[in-house]
Amino acid sequence: MLELPGLIDPHVHLREPGGTHKEDFDSGTSAALAGGFTTVLAMPNTLPPLTDSSSLEMARSAAASKARCDYGLFLGAGEGNTTSARPLASQTCGLKVYMDQTYGELCMQSLPALIEHFRRWPLSKPIACHAEGHSLAVVLALAHLYQRQVHICHVSQAVEIQLIRLAKERGTLVTCEVTPHHLFLSQEDATGLGQGRSEVRPRLATPADVAALWSALDVIDCIATDHAPHTLEEKDGPEPPPGFPGLETALPLMLTAVSEGRLDLDAVIQRLHVNPGRIYDIPHQADTSVTVDPDASWEVRGEDLYSRCGWTPFEGMKLKGRVTHVQLRGANVFGEGQVTAPPGFGHDLATQPIEA
Ligand code: NCD
Ligand code: ZN
Ligand code: ZN
Ligand code: ZN
Fold first, then answer.
1. Nearest 5°: CA angle at 41, between 40 and 46?
2. Pocket test for ligand 1, best of 16, 96, 103 (most atoms within 8 A of CB)
3. How much is the pTM?
4. Burial class (CB in 10 A: 0-12, 13-18, 19+), 169
5. Which residue has a Cα nearest atom 5 of ligand 1?
6. Cβ atoms 285, 328 nearer than 8 A
């Protein structure tokens, strides 16, 4: 058995408010604990999106009563909240900017509004960006011009990781994350998944892109799931929304890669705990650990997952390495396949004093 620190996922969609038939703070944080994550940072592309104090309060009160692991909430950047965003910063883990069209209505079209957000958002909190292709170049330029840190979400292409490497070499304050699905799946898996189930943003990339990500691990600060649950009915329907669930498969996929010698365990802990903790200034969780059996072989089955969405793009995959127990702040919160933390056990990072 191996003991790991509580993992931190800086990119999840828990769908509350407005999408609780897909997931909510209860089911989503149960999936997190089952996957070894004791902290998750929730995205603001909900319904309504989290762009002001009243929508943020809806998410905060739902999370306070339902979350089983610790959590932070992102504020969404819009054209209408360039001045009202900053006063809300202390209630959030960061500002999320959607530069490209994806699921939900948030999408930053206006360059002046984008610049206002870069000027006003406090330097002490990250700006996380969904920025693919050309959008990435824009965000890197602004980070450089405004001398502030940006975090690039779900990097998927060779050209993107090359740009981020170069930006880091030039001293731009940029960090980035890559998802397990962009490391373990490519366009070539899309046929097997089916059209709706293969829809995700950024899209699954070419095998050459996947290889480029694996050979740029030194540039990748975090492995983030971008856990984006949609029901099977929606994925197999006429207008399939993009997104994959990922909380319960991320660590086992990475442990499988460790067993195959593709990276070492310390590199995994850096990207699933140390770096996200540093980037988002997440307080240390006392008496918290994740026990894994690195030799346990198992097959992924959507129906066994805690996520309400009931499916996974990794269906049938044989993995080596499994979470057996999770402790959070001294309490047994997962063991023998059961989540035992009660709803409401999770703390809001924004209201927690930093522990010693
Ligand atoms: C995400 C979702 O469903 O909220 N979908 C996705 O394909 N990744 C949105 C996002 O992260 O871009
Ligand atoms: Zn995104
Ligand atoms: Zn996302
Ligand atoms: Zn630590």
1. 120
2. 103
3. 0.98
4. exposed
5. 243
6. yes
